[in-house]
Structures are given as C-alpha cells and as structure tokens.
## 1
Amino acid sequence: MDISSWQSTWYFIFFFASLMFYCTVAVVAFKGFGDVVAMISKMLEGRRQ
Amino acid sequence: MHLHWIDLLIVLVYVGSTIAAGVLARSSIKGISDFLVAGRALKTHMAVATMVSTGLGLVTVMYFAQEGFVNGFSPFIVGVIATVAHIIIGKTGFLVSRLRHTQVMTVPELYEIKYSRGVRLLGGSILGLAGTLNMCLFPILGSKFVVGFTGMDPSWVNPVMIILLIIVVFYTLMGGMVSVVLTDFAQFILLTVGFLLGTYFILVHPDLGWETITTSLEHHKGADAFDPISNASYGWIFIVYFISISFVGIVWQPEMSRPLSTENSEVARKVFWIQGLTSVGRALIPMFWGAAAFAWTHLPSYTGTYASDGQSAVPEMLGQILPVGVAGLLLAGMFAAFMSTHDSYLLAWSGVFVRDVVSPIKAMMEGAPEERNADDTWGGLSSEREIYWTRIFVILLATLLAGFGMFFIDRLPETAFKWMYLTGTIYFAGTVGTVVIGLYWSKANRIGAYCALILGGTGPINFLIMSMVPELVPDFMQSFVENSNLTIMASLIMGALGMVVGSLLTQKSNPPRPIDFSDMK
C-alpha cells in the first residue's frame, strides 16, 4: 500500500476504535456501578461489625 | 508549575478518596483469597472495568505514546491485533476457561496441579523475575509524566516517584484486591473522560489537528510512520510474534488475576471479550497523542527541549494545550492510572513470590503433600502468613522499583514498549509450553515443563545481558543484539519445542498428570 492508503486506513481505524472504546466504557461503567455500590456497602457493614 | 489551583484540587480530592477506600477495604479481608482475588466474587462489568484499568496504566499511556512519537501511526497495528485476539479468546474461552476452572490464584499454581511443586517453584521464580524487570519502568515513567505535565523542574522526577510509590503501597497494603478493584473502577471512568477530552483538544488545536499531524509525520519520517511492514522496528517477524503473544499474553499474572477473580469460567470468558472491545482504543489513543506530540515538538514555533524525547514531550504538550479543569481531570485520571496499575502489579508479583516461591520452599522442606487445602494454601505458609509476607514483598518490590527508576532508566535497550515485551517474554516463552500446550495436550509432562521454562526464558535474558555489553558479542550474533524481534520470536518457538520434545522423550519415566475439564461451564 502507498502512504495515502495507509493514512486513510489508520484514519478509519482510529475513529472506529475510539468510538468502540468510549461506547464500551460507558456501558460497562453504567452496569458496573451497582456492583461497586454493593461492594462498598459490604465493606461499611463489615466495618460496623 | 503551570497548573491552576482548581486542577490541583481535583487531583487532591481523588488521591484522598483513594486512601479512604484502602482503609475501608481493610475490614473486608478475611483470608488470602480475599486479599489476592477479592474472594473470587467479581461480577462481569466490575471485572471488565478493573481489567481494562490494569491494562491501561500511566506506564501504558507513556510507552504507547513514546511508540507513536518514535514510529508515528505504524504501531497502530499492535492495537488492532490485540483486539482481534482478545475477542477470539473471549468467544472461544481459549486458556481463560480452563485456567479459571482449575481454581488457581496464580498461574504457577497450575504447574503444581499439572506438573510438580518443583516446576511451580521454577515457574514462579521466572514469573517473579520477569514481572519485576517488566515493572521497573512503571514508577519512573509515571513520575516523568507528572513532572512534564505540571511543568515542574525535571529534578523533581525522583522525589515525585517516591511520593507516588508511598501512596500506592499504603492502600495496597490496606485492602489488597478489594481496594484495587475500587480504585480501578474510579480510574476506568476518570481516564476515559481524560482520553476523550485530551484527544478532542488535540484535534481542534489550531497548531495540531489530524491533517497537521499526518503531514508532519510524512515530512519527517516518510512511509515508516504509516507502514508497519516497511518500518524496521516492526516488520513481519514482530507482527507474527505479536499475534502469538496476544493469545499467550493473557496469562500475564496482573491481567489474568481478574478473570481468576470472577464467579466462574463463563464470567471469565465474558470479561475477556467485552474488554477486548477496548483494547484497540487503549493502544491507539495514546499512540495518537505521541504522534501529535511529535508534530508539536517539530513546529517552527516550538521552543522546548523535548524534540527528541518521546517520554516527556506528550505530558508537556498536554499540559500546555488543555484548559483549566480539564488539565486537573486528566491529571487525576493519570494519577489513578498510575495507582491502579502499580497496586495490581505489586499485588500480583508479591503474591507470586509468596505463593509460588516462598511457600513451596517451606512446603518442600516440611515434606507437605502436593495438595490444595480448603483455605487455598498448599502446605507451606498459612493463609495469615501468606497475607503477611505478601505485604512485606509489596514494600520490598516498591523499594526495588524506586532504585531501578533512579539508576537504570537511561540504560534501556530500545524503547520502553520493547522493554515491556522483551522482559515479558522471559515468562511468556515458557508458558507457550507449560500453559498453552499443557492445558490442551494430554502428553505434556513435568520434564517438558522444565525444558519449556528454561529454554524459553534463556533467549530474552541473554539479549538483556548482551545488549549491556555489545562490544563483547561476536559478529555472527550481532543481529540478535541490534533488534529484539528475532530473539523474542525464537524464544516462543523454543518454549513450545521444549515442552513437546521434553515430554515425548520422557513419557514412560514421567507419566503426565491429567486434569479433568468434563464439568467445566
């Protein structure tokens, strides 16, 4: 491939990869938040005991 | 220092919260499995968050950024390969499912189940050595980022490194894996926001932007900045090596400890494929920052001193182009990234030293049977003593890392990225035989495992020694010193061959131990 083809390929991959990264993080953060709250509650309970 | 007080306040709030989390987590530690693998109770999304955070430390950002600075967009190929490999692993359960099914906490534990206590001792020693060498760069690179970003005088690099290490050691000692998981989750969110804003401000900056960056790379580096095949740092040998290592690399203890901490094999597999979706972004975004820093330092208006220093140019650029508030957020994210990787790695390598080196030696001296007890110990140290010694090793390792950072950082062969893979291969090469072949080939035995570990680890260690004294290396071996690609690829092959040949020759004298996977989920 020549330079301009590589540049176009990396341009597409960079923006696609970024989109996939941010979307995955958003979904995981949203769904994982409940798990974190449960873990902290468990720790606070253990501390009270 | 050019940071606003609002930026500093954001950083202080984060660090304070982290310390509080460590203190809180201490109350939930009841035994060694709580300390090392959070009681094996991690649910899918939390495990994904913590695994992504571990793989996205400040050192990762720094070495990927340096790679982008030195080689432009060519290293993007690394992120693409990693993502494809992780998604395949997640979908097929390759290695992950079987390892989780064996209920081990560290990979060398598998060696005692499948081979013998002696193999575990050797494997644990090699893993500990590789891990410690690998981690040696972490604190100093993290400190360089903080100093470069804040605009502090470069003489502050060592003091900042020591302060950061003290904070990390404190809360790792407190809460073990529980505090690690909590801080990982905070980092996961903070650093992502930092990534998004950092990239946005690079793309819209009048002196940067996509076009300016690509034009600068093309002008100064030519095709090497875009074509990974023609770039001598990569080429086909490295690409084949990286494809192999992307599948084998999942047995790297700090990363594997997350799937091993999940509820069951099914969750472990799911964790892998979801986090695989982030692998390419985790690599490409900091590489892009590195390429942007290259363009930044080659602007006619640039007056700084980092035009040839990929490690310092990125933080300097970010510190100058980000507005108040965003800079604080990114720095807090980077602090979080520094801490979450350090705590995970310190815990992982300390756990390996204690469970796979110290404890087996004690068990051997006492003649304890090669069996796992109900409290996850193996006849050596008790659960309480394992936690105690793990904490001691955390402190010892942190001290060693500080020493390396102060005295060895300028003597690295090749880039930081290559150092990571070279040191990692000391261990990975052996695991091709002991773990990959061992889990799927019924004839894999104890002698094959010894051969795989020794033959696999020899190549990278030899390279490290030879690269320190190149003048003593004979001419016919110079190609092994000039570029590590050949060495690391040959090591993987030697690790695999060692297992196959060693096992086939000794089937009768050393019959293989079978592992039952029939009830695996």
Note: The longest helix of chain B spans residues 157-204.
## 2
Amino acid sequence: MTLETRSLHEEFIRTFYKLIQLAKIHEDNNQMLLECIKEFMQVIRLLVDDDRITLQISRGNIYLQDEKLRYRRETDSLTNNLFRYLEKRNLSGLCFLSDIQDASAKEIIDFSRTLNTAEQQEDPLKWFVQELENQGVAWVEVVYEQDAPPEEHPPETDPQDQIKKRKERARKSYFCALDSLTEVAEKISYQKKVGVRKSLRVIQNMVDLVMEDEPILLGLSTIRDYDDYTFTHSVNVAILSMCLGQRIGLSRTSLHRLGVCGIFHDLGKLDIPIEIINQAGKLNQSEFEEIKKHTIHSVAQIIKLEAPHDLKAKILLPPFEHHLKYDLSGYPKTNRKKSVSLFGRIIALADVFDAITSPRVYRNIAFTPDQALNIMLDGAGTDFDPILLKIFINMLGVYPIGSLLELDTGELALVMETDKTSDGARPMVALLASDGNGDYVKVGVADLAERDAQSGAFRRNIVKSIHPSTLGIQPAEFLI
Amino acid sequence: MPEQSKKNGIDFHEHGQTAQELQAVEAVIASFVMAAKNYAIYPESHATCQNSLQTVKSRLDAFIENYGDLRFEVTKDRLLFKSETVQQDDPKTEKLAFPLFRDGIQWLEFKQGLELWEISGFFKIYNDYKMLQEEAEGDLVTALWEMDFPHLQYSATDVLWKAETLADFSTLKVTDSETPDAAMQEQADDDQQDVADTTEAAPDAGIGLTLSTMDRTIWQLTPEESRILKQMVAQEEQQSGTQDVLDVLELILRNQNQPEDYSSILEFIKEEFKSALAQGNFQIALDFLEDLRKTYQSYKIEKPWARPLLGDFFIDISGTQVLGVLKQVLPTLDKQHTDRIEIFRRLFLRFPPAAITALAPLLLEKLSVSVERKLMEIIGSLALKDIHPLEQLLDRPEEALVKKLVFIIGHIKGEKTGQILLEMTHHESAWVRLEALKALVRRDENMTKELFPLIDDPVLPIRRMMWKYLEKHQDPETGNLIRNYLDHKKIRREDHEQILNCYKTLVRCDSQSFVPFLRESLISQGLNFSFDRSLRRQGAALALLELDTEEAQEVLGQASKSLFPNIRSAYQKAVKVHK
C-alpha cells in the first residue's frame, strides 16, 4: 500500500465517522454537516474503483478495499470508535457503490441517520437492511461476515478478551495512580525530594486507556474512598478531566498534561493542618481562609517536584485557578482580569462534580451523579464554562455511568453504559440484588430502552436515582 | 531462552532467521552501540554524533528493506532478535539493554519509514535517561511515550509497582459506618462553599428526572459554540502560556514567607523568564521585570529578608545561562521589527551592569544593523552605571568583539574610559588600536605624550592618524617629543615618509628653538654618507625651507654651498620636494 493510498483510506474513515456523528446532532441545513458531506464525497470520488468502496470489520481490524488499515497511534482512537460503532449495529461492513456519487446531500444524511438509529433496534442489522430497502437506497449494501477478507495472521485475542484485559489494566492503573500520589504526599510531608516518574507513567497509561475505551475510565471515576477522600478525589479529577479533554479533541500530550494537572491539583492541601481538612463542624472564617490557601500551596508544591520544567510550567496554572470560577468571582482573589485557562476550567468541572457526588465527613448530603449535573447546570456561565459544561454533561449522560437507579419493577440498577440516543434517559444497566449479607451482587443486565413487544411500552422505568454510598455500593466493583 | 548463537556452527535457521539476517542485525547493533557512545561524549550537533546517526539509519534502512521491520526483545542484559542474542551488555562498554529493561521495555520495533529525526530523538532520550537519579523526573518509557515516534514502537510493563499492588475495590470504604450527627447536615462544605449554598437548598432526589426530561438539545453545541471550542483547543495546543505562568508565579512569590521556599520559586521563575526570552517575548519579560522591581522596592519595609534574594535573582538572570538564549533570537530580528527591538532595548536597560558580560558576546552574531546598534546602546548605558564588566571583556580573544566594545567605550565620557582607551592603543590587534585612537582623537583632549608612541605603529593608517593628531597639537611639548624621537630613532629605508613628517611637524611646533638642531642635522658630519644621515639632512632642509626665516635661509645658504656633495644633494632634494 502506498503512502497516498493509506492516507486516502484514513481520510475515508475519518470523513465517514465525522459524517455519522454530525448527522446525529445537526439539522439538515447545518453548514458543518454539508461541508462534511462534500469532503466525504470528494474522498469517495478518489477512492471508488471497480464501481465500489468496501468497508469491513473483521477480527478486530478494519479493512478498506480488502486492505487492512495499518495501526497508527494517531488514528487508533478513530478506528476503535468506528469499529465499536459498526459492532453495536452487528454490521460486518458496508459496500458503497459508484452510484453514491449521484446521491443528494439529503439522501446521504438520511442514510447516516438510519445507520445511527439502527443501534436502538432489537435486531439492528435486520432493521437496517429493511430500512435501506424501504427508503430505496440502492447505492449501499451490507457486507456479511462470510465476505470478510482472509486474515494474514490469526488474531492474538478475541474482542471480549481484549475488553477484559483493558479492564484489568484500568483497575491496576487506578490503584497505581493512588499509590504514586500517596508516595508523593509522603515524601512531601517528610520534606524530601519528590520525583514524578511513577505519576507520569500511570497517567500515560490512563491516556492510552481514555483513547481506547473512555467508558472504562469513566467507570473508574466512580470510585469512592471515604477514609482517604483526597487521593481518590485527585485521581478521579484526573480521569474526568482527561475524558473531557479527549472529548474536546486535545492532543495526546495535552491529555497527559491535563491528567498530571488533575492528579496534583490539590497537592497544596498537604500544607493545610489536617484538623481543618477533616473538620466535622462548620469552618470559621480564619479556617476557611486557611483552606483557600491550598491553591497557592499547590503551585508551590508543584514547583518543588522533580519534574521537567516545561511540564511544571504547564501544570501549575490550573491548580491555582480551579476555584476561581468561570466569572472570576471565586478565590484566590487577584487583580488578574485574564480568564481562567482551558485546563483550569476543565479541572474545575471535574473537581466540583467529584466533590459533590462524594460523601464527606462534614457533609451528609452527597448528590447522585444526575443530581450533581443538574446542579452544575445552574452554574453555567458563572461557575463553569458553559460550552465545556455542555460537553461534560453530554459525555456523562443524563444518568452517568455508576448511577444507581430504583426501577418501577422494584429492581436496583447500576448504569453500565451511557445512553447515546437523542432521549438520553434509558441507559444499559446492571441489575443488582442483595445477597442477604448486606452486600449486593449482579444478577443480570438490562437495556432500559427495551420495550414490550406487544404493548410497545418500556419494560422498565426509572423511579429515582440513589446515591450508591447509601447502600454501601462501590459502583466500580461491578463496572470494571 | 535459546543458547547464544555462534558464528561457526549453530543452526541459524532455528527461528527462521538466516545467517545474513543475523549479520545485518549485528551490524545495526554495532551502529547503535557506537551512536549511544558518541551521544554520551559529544554534543548532538557534533559531526561525530551526526555521522553515527547516519550510519544507524543506513544500516536500519538496509535491514528493513531486505527483511522487514526490525524488532528486538529486551532482557536484563541482552537484546534478542527472534530469540537469538544479538547484543550482550558489557560493564566496560555501553550497556544498551539494561536501561531498557530497567524501565520495563519488553521489545522495541523499528519500522519502515523510520526517519533520521526519530533515530536522533531515540538516542537523545536514551542518553538522557540511561542513568536515573533516585527521584527521577521520568524515564525512557515516559520520554518515548511523549515523543510518540511514528515508526518506533515498543511495549512496556509496569515495573514501577510491586506485583502485589492493591487492585481490590473492597478495601475502599464507600461511606462512614457511623450515623452522622444531625448538626452536620447543615454544615457547609469547605472546597465547594458556593456550590454548597446551592446544594443545601437543592430539591430532593427527584432532580434526576428533571435532567432526564430536559430536551437534550440544550446541551448540544451550536455551530458558534463548536467554533469557539475549536479555537479554545487550538489556542491551548499552540500557546506557551508563559505570561500567565509568570503572573501567577509573581503572586505565589508574594505569598511566600520562608526564604527556602522563596528561593525555589525564584529559581523556577528564572527558567520561565528564560523561556520568555527564548520565545522573543520581550514585552512579557519587560512587564514581569518591572513588576518585580516594584516588589523589590517595596521589600525595604515589607520583607527585608527577601531583598537580597531578589537582588541575587536579578544578577542570576543577567548571566549567560539565561541571556545566552538571545543568541538564537536576535539574529531573527530585522528592521521590520522596530517595535520589538525597541521593547528589547527598554527591557535590557532594566538589567544590572553585570548583564554586559552576557550581552556583549552577542555582538559577534549576525545581527541586523538596527539590532546591533540597540545592543551597543544598551551595553553603553549599562556601562555608565559600572564600567567594570565591560572592561573585563576587553581581554577576550575575539578581535571583532573587542573592537566594538572599544567603540562603545569611546562614547562614554570620563577619565576612566580615557585610561581604558589609552591601554587599548597598545592592543595586539591593529583594528582595536585604531578604534581606540579614533575614540581618543574624538575627545579633543591633549594626550600627545601618551599617544606619541603610535607614530611608530606598524600599521600605516594608525601612523597617519597620529600625524593628523600631532598636526592639531603643534606645541613645544610635541616638538620636544619629536626631537627626542629623532635623536633616538634608528632610521630604516621604510621610515622615509615618517622622518620627513617628523621634521616638518617639528618646525611647526616651536619654530625658532629647533633651528640649531636643524642646522646640526643638515650641515654636520659631512663625511657621513649613511642613509640615516642623508634622510636627516633632507628632513632638516625641508623643515628649514618651511620655516623660511632669516636664520633658516642662512643655514640653507650654507648647505647649498657646502663642499660636501651629500649636504648639497640633501638641500637640492629638499628644494625639489618643497616645490
């Protein structure tokens, strides 16, 4: 495969994926969508030979025109996303015939929307094929498994195995992150020199995971440790920030820096007397003033780390800013008129979300994730960047991963996968039941979007969300 | 693990490789070892390093072309190729495998399309991280990950954590088992004081339904928001953020109350300040420095202990370690960058004179005329406060630099600079001597006695300048100096013009008093036919002709009628020249 061909194949994947994503959220006359269609058609024109373009997935790989798309780090995330997208629709591939060049923009949009909607159907593949026939779309055909090209080498693991390994990696990364942070804190408290090698390594692993499988990382961010809030909080903030950063298109290097930022954003709390941090009662004014200094202390601590200067320069600003608020009405009070940096705004979102969804020694109220998002929505434009907040909510979903729901069937459900449909309120859930000893076990999986075949009504409905800690449930145990 | 292969016997086909393939691998390894060694000894830009890289590249390219991508497995002290040992660490030479093993790298693969910058980057990383401090800033894996070489892949394990690292969620406590005190329910949160005000008044758990019943389009981005987001991300990826960092650092600094912490912040600020200069961001640097100076002034009362630390900081940033970055920046500025050049000037006028030591050598770079002029202005202004740093630089071996520094000194008034210039008139470089002389001549001070030796300077332009100077200072002192010079000078043929000038000038200094001397020079020693004598006679005759007094005419009359042909000849030659 020449470099030119490879670029064209990648371009096809890119424009195709972009098209189906844009068609999901924009109206027909949206300029970005129309531009994307143009781009896509241009690539089609260049690529179509022998009257067709064939896109297939098989044994964990993507094939275009029977040629396997080679692994490249830059396109890894995109190809994974497309692979999962087709998998969810039970599609082994699509074949675009040359007549597509005569299709109108409307036809392309309708096709994309049909493809998007297929996921929600009981039998996505069957439904999709039927819809194509109903709509009279003659320029695309479905590719079936038996048409898949021969594999050069046998795959090392099957997809389920890969997911299992990823979860294991994710779990290990989380605890390694906690471990590295604990070590840093310990050394700081003994006023020793502190290297950041471990923290950098573990965050790099997490960046790789974010790019491969965001839901797994989001599942990790549900972890709570009542006794050791600060460290789990810092790791969760790092995870949530990286996930949000990935959503908005930050580069790999920036994601890494954002993650390191997140993990160290509250390092300054080590300089606050522990009695104030763990104060059960209300803080008086001077205690609160003391707490507020942690943002400044965090910067001072970061500067002292044994880390490359460039990295420290990049990560010290957000810890300083993360309580400033979007409208600069927060703390520390300065004469600076400059707006909070992008990383600072991201960290602020992640910080508040994790904080208000965590039970604390001084606060009995911990909000469920969906409640927290609702509250944060009120802060759009004042406390939080409104654009980032939108993306954050979109990322987590109405019922974020790890939300515990009471259903009208009397069942207890833990959200496993966010609902990406336009409605957004009917995610995939794990059904939990008490084991009689005060713990809970997973007894099944359900799709809340599932309807009764006869009545058409939803089989299960949400009554309310419950904070997992009220039942002593650690969501990550069921998710990862 | 298979036994180490030997060249004379073992089955090389055991794992599918051929003898030629192994040889090619070993050639690649040899080039790796050499490159690693050279990177340790020489700077990256050194020809030896560059040649090593080229060798690595050519051997890798050759291998990949014939046999495909090259993958090495890594063990504690060896590199393996298809399970054959192709390199074993030797404690006496470069240990290639161990640092890779130490950081958990299991294999390295060099792929088709590998470019020179990737190879260079790899060896730089290897050199930077082959030895680690106890508290390391990173390692080979963190650096490789950061670089993300497109044609160099690797796999690494988590070696930094013990195998028994906890990975069990059940050890994490979800909530406190004790019932919380009722009073706590009304307590506000510390970190989320503002959100807590909202949360306490928040409705009960039915809120989730509110979010779920909202139209989902309210949290979908509009095209305008998408555009703003794209801009935000692009800005974040591209900008350096130096200004923001410096702003915050200044705030942090003001909040420090311990000298040790204060110093560590200053050390960091120094690097960031250096970054600003390296980016050519003179405005940021200037604003920062001005603020810091104000802080310095305020510390007389507020934090007297911090003043010396700040004072040291200003000296620190004046050194070559920081200002050396300007070497790359200044040559990029030209007459189009008038504003920036002006800000550059304003910035460096705020530096202490110690900065001269770092700034002056920049005059050796290829600078535009305007930049060079500004730089010289800056150096001159700083030298007004303290000439010493500039003076010390005059010992530098670079002639071109010293000449420019002498030019600068020449524009600084004062006794001290006069002395310095005078010393420089003895410099081994003619250019420097000339420059110093020009500066002294410009001063319009009478330094005849001090400068007089320059009439004997080996370089003609200097001698000529000296004569012009003497012509402006025709007085008895000058005359005596010339007389003394003539008395002791051993004349050579090349001194012809010089000697004649001496006599001409002599007579202008104090015309009458030198007539006896001139008589002596012209008429005595009639039997001395040496060139020396002959030239003196000619000179004396010329001088007398110029004098044109009665007494002079009388001496000339004697010479014209002398019995000695050499005296008559001298007279005649002088008359010819004088006409």
Note: The mean pLDDT of chain A is 88.
